[in-house]
Amino acid sequence: MKDKSLTYKILKQIPSLIFIAIGATMAAAALEIFLIPNSIIDGGVTGISIILNTVLGGSLSLFIIALNIPFLLMGFKLLGKKFFLKGVYGMLIFTTLLEVFHYVPVVTDDILLAFIYGGLLLGIGVGLVIKFGGYLDGTEIVAILLSKKSTISVGQVILIINIFIYGTAFFVFGPDRALYSLLTYFVTFKIIDIVSEGMDQAKAVYIITEKEEDISREIFRQLGRTVTILDGIGAVSQSHKTIIYTVVTRIELPELREIIKQADASSFVTVSDVSEVIGTHIKKKPKELKPISKEK
């Protein structure tokens, strides 16, 4: 039975692995046949790697892998083994195909066409990877960790990091290429928004379930997020309903979906964007979780 269960879990991941591979392929193609030949860079770790590769020479893929290793390890600690494995999987495909596409002829040397189509292709690719639980850049992991220890949001941390990267690009590639890189970042950012169900870093999640104890415990154990338990009554059935409310980051949303599926596949879930979060919804784990009390 255990072998069958393991096989089923592996088979369930095949569609997401396929889409992560497609997304990584599109992202690598966007960089090597549109953006990098025209001295337009991406943000995050990839942008840093492109700058280092330009200044020092060598392999872009090796720079990306080397710089992302600490963030992959952080991701393992923060979001678990599944996220780590998908991250490694996406990263290997992405860096391998960067080397392959490096030898593909450049599509255009028109800077305007390169930034528009490169940004679109990169945004779709990264969006697919994020949507299906992987990632190609460690910046978001750092952003999540920093946001947990301060009042700065994940989006603000990423923006601050990228300001320094594009500021450096100003001196390495010149002002016009740095400005085009910044425009590409905003195009990519918006496309990721569309593809991955919203770029707002915070997502409010309502879960109507009969397994509130199991789901709440796993959300806290795996994501470190607190939850609020609400009581409700079905308007038609007049039966008691338990509603779990929590707030997670966009990158944690695939893991939350998996937690809910495993604990209560019949639960009803809604996800909405949160424009601002005031206060903290991430707590240090106590030695022992107390059971949820239903007493009034």
Account of the 3D structure:
The chain is an alpha+beta fold and 296 residues long. It folds into two domains: 2-195, no CATH class; 202-274, Alpha-Beta Plaits, CATH 3.30.70.120. 62% of the residues lie in helices and 10% in strands. The chain has helices spanning 2-35, 44-56, 60-79, 81-101, 111-131, 139-148, 154-173, 175-195, 212-223, 253-263; strands at residues 202-209, 228-233, 240-249, 268-274. It has a four-stranded antiparallel beta sheet. Helix 6 (139-148) packs across helix 7. The two termini are 42 Å apart.
Computed structural class: alpha+beta
End-to-end span in angstroms? 42 Å
The SSE string, one letter per element, is HHHHHHHHEHEEHE
Strand order of the largest sheet: 2-3-1-4
On the 0 to 100 scale, the average pLDDT is 82
As a percent range, the share of helical residues equals 55-70%
Uncertain runs are 283-287
Envelope shape: elongated
If helices are DSSP runs of H or I spanning 4 or more residues, what is the number of helices? 10
Count of distinct strands: 4
> How many domain regions?
2
C-alpha Rg (nearest Å)? 21 Å
Biggest sheet layout: 4 strands, antiparallel
Strand content: 5-15%
